[in-house]
Structure formats: C-alpha cells, structure tokens
C-alpha cells in the first residue's frame, strides 16, 4: 500500500517547502542547473521531500507546487526513480518506436508525474483491498507510473533522452490547462538539460484539445 499523505496540504506546509508552479524549473528555482542531466536531477531532488515507507519498491520524491495563492490551489509533482532491475522490459518501447533502440541501455529512469484527481483519490482511499489497485506493485513496478490518466507523465532515461507520455488538461478534469502543463514540461526539459525528448501521439492530441 502507498503510505504517503498526498492530500493534506496543511501537513505538507509544516514539513516541506512550497514552490511556485509558474516558476518551477527556471534557472535558480529551486536550483542552479549547471551540470549534466544526471547531476541536475540529483541537484533538484535535494529540494524534494523523500517519501518514506511508500511500499512501491522504488525511491520516490515529491514537491508541493502552488498554482494559485488566492484561492489556494496546490498540486503535487512526484519523481520516481525506476532502476533497470525493477523494469518489466529492459528495452524501452518508446525508444524503439522513435528509432532510439540502438542507444545503450540506461540503468535508471526518472518518472515525473503530476497525478490526476482520480489517481490521488485512488491512492488515498485504497487500503490494500484489491490486487490491481493503484498502490500495488506489479513485478516491482509501481501502479502509480502505470496509471494512464495523470495530468502529466514524462519519463527521462539517465542519459538525458526522454518521452512525454501524456498530458491531460481542463477538458479531462485537470486543474491545469494543456498549455500550462506544456510550459511546465518545457521548463523541466530545459532546466535539467535533457538531450532529446519525444512526444507521443496521444500526448500531442491531448495538448491540442485543451
């Protein structure tokens, strides 16, 4: 079961910093991105809240992001580190699809997830009642990163190659418009100094519809 408080903003205000969504990922906010991709990821995670006892078999960090101050609106960014040992398939199907299949196999992936309302509700309400719930493991792989309906889900390999897997804006019940999510993703890519980023067909369709 995913034992992480993902709803209570009051608790998080006491134990972690709140970052402005519209500036997150810019140079100097929250960190100066001066190294290679992996160094920049590690530097960014120094400012994150390490989620303990999450029970998904992979390290996970979180940032609380303020979208509006009045009325107050906060969302969460999860960063999940997936090692090659935890992957169901050592070869990335997205890399193979876009012709990157000849790249060296990386030992880690970093999933950047803005969870949807549905994902948060499922995480918060599940008490280990079903085998296919969001918080169960499947051969070491978290259901959180398999869930299809997040506001945003992007993944980077440790070599700086990445994929934007989904974007779901206002029409899909999100708190954010598609262009806001894309601006956020672009800041992450630029700040972390990602090398190449692929946009899936489904993510492009979802962006255009918002």
Care to describe what's here?
The chain has helices spanning 9-15, 37-45, 93-97, 117-125, 143-146, 178-192, 201-208, and strands spanning 18-20, 49-50, 60-68, 73-83, 108-114, 137-138, 141-142, 152-157, 161-167, 196-199. It has 210 residues and is α+β, with helices and mostly antiparallel strands.
Short description:
This protein is of the alpha+beta class and 210 residues long. The protein contains 7 helices and 10 strands. The chain is globular, with a radius of gyration of 16 Å.
Question: How many beta strands in the DSSP annotation?
Answer: 10
Rg is 16 Å
Shape type:
globular
Q: Pairing-aware structural class of the strands and helices?
A: alpha+beta
End-to-end Cα distance, whole Å, is 34 Å
Q: Hey, roughly how much beta strand do the residues contain?
A: 25-35%
Please give the share of residues in helix: 25-40%
Are there runs of 5+ residues with pLDDT below 50, and where? Answer: 1-14, 126-141, 204-210
- Elements, N to C (H/E): HEHEEEHEHEEHEEHEH
**Main sheet record:** 8 strands, mixed
* Number of helices, counting only DSSP H or I runs of 4 residues or more: 7
Q: Give average pLDDT, whole number.
A: 77
Q: How many domains is the backbone divided into?
A: 1
Provide keyphrases for this structure.
single chain, 210 residues, alpha+beta, 8-stranded mixed β-sheet, two-stranded antiparallel ribbon, 10 strands, 25% strand, globular
């Amino acid at each position: 079961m995913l034992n992480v408080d993902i709803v209570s903003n009051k608790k998080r205000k006491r134990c972690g910093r709140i970052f402005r969504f519209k500036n997150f990922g810019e140079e100097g906010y929250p960190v100066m991105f001066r190294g290679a991709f992996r160094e920049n990821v590690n530097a960014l995670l120094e400012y994150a809240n390490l989620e303990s006892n999450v029970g998904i078999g992979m390290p996970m960090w979180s940032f609380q992001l303020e979208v509006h101050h009045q009325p107050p609106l906060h969302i969460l960014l999860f960063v999940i580190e997936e090692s090659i040992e935890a992957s169901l398939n050592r070869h990335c199907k997205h890399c193979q699809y876009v012709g990157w299949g000849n790249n060296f196999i990386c030992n880690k992936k970093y999933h950047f997830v803005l969870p949807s309302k549905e994902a948060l509700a499922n995480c918060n309400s599940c008490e280990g009642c079903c085998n296919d719930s969001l918080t169960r493991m499947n051969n070491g792989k978290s259901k959180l990163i398999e869930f299809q309906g997040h506001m945003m889900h992007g993944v980077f390999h440790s070599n700086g190659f990445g994929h934007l897997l989904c974007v779901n804006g206002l029409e899909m019940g999100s708190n954010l418009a598609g262009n806001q999510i894309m601006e956020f993703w672009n800041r992450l890519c630029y700040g972390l100094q990602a090398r190449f980023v692929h946009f899936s067909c489904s993510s492009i369709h979802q962006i255009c519809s918002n």
